[in-house]
Amino acid sequence: MAHAHSVKRHKGLMDWLTTVDHKKIAILYLVAGGLFFGIGGIEALMIRVQLAKPMNDFVTAQQFNELITMHGTTMIFLGVMPIIFALMNAVVPLQIGARDVAFPFLNSLGFWTFLFGGLLLNLSWVMGGAPDAGWTSYTPLSSSTYSTTHGVDFYTIGLQIAGLGTLIGGINFLATIITMRAPGMSFMRMPMFTWTAFVTSAMILFAFPAVTVGLVLLTFDRILGANFFDVAQGGNPVLWQHIFWIFGHPEVYILILPAFGIISEVVSTFSRKRLFGYSSMVFATILIAFLGFMVWAHHMFTTGMGPVANALFSIATMLIAVPTGIKIFNWLFTMWGGQITFNTANLFAAGFIPTFVMGGVTGVMLASAPADYQYHDTYFVVAHFHYVIVGGLVLGLFAGLHYWWPKMFGRVLNEGLGKLEFWTFIIGFHLTFFIQHFLGLIGMQRRVFTYLPNQGFDLMNLISTIGAFLMGVGVIVFLINIAISFKQPKGVDGDVWKDGRTLEWAIPSPPPEYNFKQTPLVRGIDAFWKEKMAGNKEMTPAEPVGPIHMPSPTILPFVMSVGLFIAGLGFMFTNDDFGNSLLNFLFGNYIITGIGLAITFGSMLLRSLFDDHGWHVEPEELNDKGVKA
Amino acid sequence: MTNHDLNDGSAVKHRHRHEGPQKHIIAFVFSIILTLIAFATVAAGGVNIAFTVLLLLVMAVLQVLVQLGYWMHLKDKGHMMPILFMAGGFFVAGLAIIAALYWMWW
To answer: Main location per UniProt (chain B) (predicted)?
Structure first.
């Protein structure tokens, strides 16, 4: 037995720092994403407290700018993206019948770079002020002329490092889905969530390089004295807007597509019906992704691109309503005539559909360029994007978390608390944001830190604030639910909903480290459901029982990310005078940056020089655990 | 033990060796010719500037195709996904660059 040698197994904290198991990385993503989601939520509540009454002085104007900037940045990049990656990691390999992702090492690296990027960004709160130029960080406001603290440097470098993690994750899922599907699982037999994860990963691959370039240019402008966005030196501030939105618009579809996938799975499972119009759903997903790259300038109608550009981008934007509409109707037709179970997951899915439609409708309104001149930078826009991101994505994520929680943790969440969470959250959500449409229409601008009394804003803002706190209550109920669920013993039935359709329900909860004892043979769409309908208790195996090759745990991704963190922090303070010759020497000569990069590249060298042969789970061990395929 | 082919790259190497060197020699010669045409046009001087630029662009595109097709094996079977994603990348990047430049500077 050449590979009977034992691999070093870690326990406790070291296990989590070194793990390359996609299921554990999913939990890491969930915990870290949840933490940042909480921070972003607290920032949101502080914003709403400040705006609860006119001329409020809960925070200063500067603090308010920092709050709105960090709320948006944290929620998008550090809150919901990682939770999406958590679900993709937890579910996609199981849904395609794989034992892990294509590159387990990169999976771990993606997580740790995201985490350290996020920590760097949030470190700004205690290191001289958070970014304050809005989550879009438009130049010239974000240039070193107008934003003199290190806030925007934390934004550019923190997001650069976190974005690296996202890009790595996206490439990993592309490779996984293309190369690691179980025998028989053609592309058109893939579960809808896997499809959306695939398309989202492709969009990450195409969109994130744009923001990488943009952030590099802004970093150069701010730290090295370049002039990309400086008009006085021949630069162009509109260039930033183009680069940001060439990334930024696909980004919102990167966010929403996985939610579409989750809703498709949940609605279909709890209607006990096959997803209506599967192939049109796939087509619509791809079409949304394709069109998503051609509409970025609808964020810039008021920059003076001219009537031709505005008209083209208007039409392209409105076109997206067509594939989105296809999806909405397919979900309705899936539910129609189904035996519907309204548990928490399905309530969130059912709540998602009308809420997202409302966000979509205001989206089409905003797509009309002449009307947009009226809506631009008002609370109407704020209401719109919270309807699609909270009412769409976050409701979808809650549906997905309730649906896959038993699979991830082997424990079910309490239904009573879940329903309480749903109702407080969705009522709070509509209370907060529905009224903001009207605030915008009567002229309240976004990003203002306060307003004068008796303009008709007072009552509506107060209602909005009350709604925000109700959403907070909903999230707290969810946390209580999680805490209670951990009192149960681990190990619910693998097919806990009894109506599981896809491969993840064919294995125990939580799944063993190697997922599938034998790779399953897929004989149709909704592979597990098909076997159940054929009277089989389990999947037909596609291979004999044999030793299973597993990747070794490694600390290197963690160390590489620490290196990037140090390098980023060092680079940021290059031009600072610390009043201390040693510190000035260390930072001014890029020595700290160099040490950080040396750690990262040294780790890469180690990884290249020493082969990781992995280890094997032998058949005897498989049988001990009594796992069915 | 079935899963012990981790360090065994020989299977992969064999598959490529069957192809034989002829096609690669042709591709090599072709890319040299393309390069020579480009250099010669510029070196000769006196050629219309607009024509030179156009010719260089055409030569460059052909060169890229030869490189991708023969050396990156995109012409071989089973490369649908790389082709699809490269085309997607070209499309997105091209669209973004052209549109953004057009609306900013012209």
So the answer is: membrane
b/e map B18-54, b = 16+ CB within 10 Å: eeeeeeeeebeeebeebeeebeebeeeeeeeeeebee
pLDDT tens, position by position, A189-247: 999 999 999 999 999 999 999 999 999 999 999 999 999 999 998 889 999 999 999 99
Q: Do the chains contact at A613 and B81, CB–CB below 8 Å?
A: no
What are the percentages of helix, strand and coil residues in chain B, rounded to 5?
75, 0, 25
Which of B2, B88, B100 lies closest to A242 in CB terms?
A: B100
In chain A, what is the straight-line distance between the N-terminal and C-terminal CA atoms, in Å? 25
User: Is the ipTM of this structure higher than 0.95?
Assistant: no
Q: Report chain B's terminal Cα–Cα distance, integer Å.
A: 65
pLDDT 10s digits, A25-56: 999 999 999 999 999 999 999 999 999 999 99
**CA triplet A493, A498, A501: central angle to 5 degrees?**
110
CA distance A540 to A34: 37
Count of alpha carbons within 13 Å of A293, Cβ hemisphere only?
24
Q: Which residues of A touch B90 (CB under 8 A)?
A: none
Q: Closest-CA residue in chain B for A612?
A: B6
Residues A499 and A488: their CA atoms lie apart, in Å, by: 22
Q: Scanning the structure block, which residue is given the tokens 């691959």?
A: A205
Instruction: Provide the pLDDT confidence category of residue A74 given band limits of 50, 70 and 90.
Output: very high
Residue that is written with structure tokens 């085309």 in the block = B87
* pLDDT value of position A19: 94
* Cα separation, A556 vs A34, whole angstroms: 24
d(CA A51, CA A451): 8
Sole residue written with tokens 């940042």: A36
A33/chain B closest Cα distance in angstroms? 29
DSSP state for residue A577 in the 8-state scheme: -
8 Å CB contact of B100 and A246: yes
Name every residue in B having a CB less than 8 A away from some CB of A.
1-4, 6-7, 81, 85, 88-89, 91-93, 95-96, 99-100, 103-105
Instruction: State yes or no: pLDDT of A78 exceeds 90.
Output: yes
Question: What is the average pLDDT score of chain B?
Answer: 79
- DSSP H helical ranges for A410-502: 415-441, 458-485
Neighbour tally for A9: CB within 10 Å: 11
pLDDT in tens, A308-354: 889 999 999 999 999 999 999 999 999 999 999 999 999 999 999 99
Chain A residues with CB under 8 Å of a chain B CB are 1-3, 174, 178, 202, 205-207, 209-210, 236, 238-239, 242-243, 246, 293-294, 296-297, 305-306, 309, 546-549, 611, 613-614, 616
